[in-house]
Sequence to fold (131 residues):
Amino acid sequence: TSPRCRTPPARPHTRPISRQLRLTEEEKRLLAQEGVTLPSTLPLTQAEERILKKVRRKIRNKQSAQDSRRRKKEYLDGLESRAAACSAQNQELRKKVQELENRNGSLLRQLQALIKRTSNKAAQTSTCVLV
Fold:
């Protein structure tokens, strides 16, 4: 026979090689919590696959919730930090305003005293000139 017409040798009917089912500790814990045991080799039945998907979804949801709580805490910590910084700055500015108001009052009193002295001198001078 020619090489083109050659048929492959007949193979005896074999079962597909089973692979090991690897579960994380968290998956094992949740499966035990639900009272479910899965075989240690693949393939799984449809029902077993649904159970495994459900457990893995619960784990993802749990991780997502933890991440969400962590992000929220970081956000709140940042807000608290900013609020504290703003309060400190506000306190400094209030102190500065008080100092400036005091200085302004002092300068105003000095100006009024100066005006009073110069107006009295002008009045005295004019009085002297008139006499």
Summary: The first helix runs from residue 25 to 33. The mean pLDDT is 86. The chain has two helices and no strands.
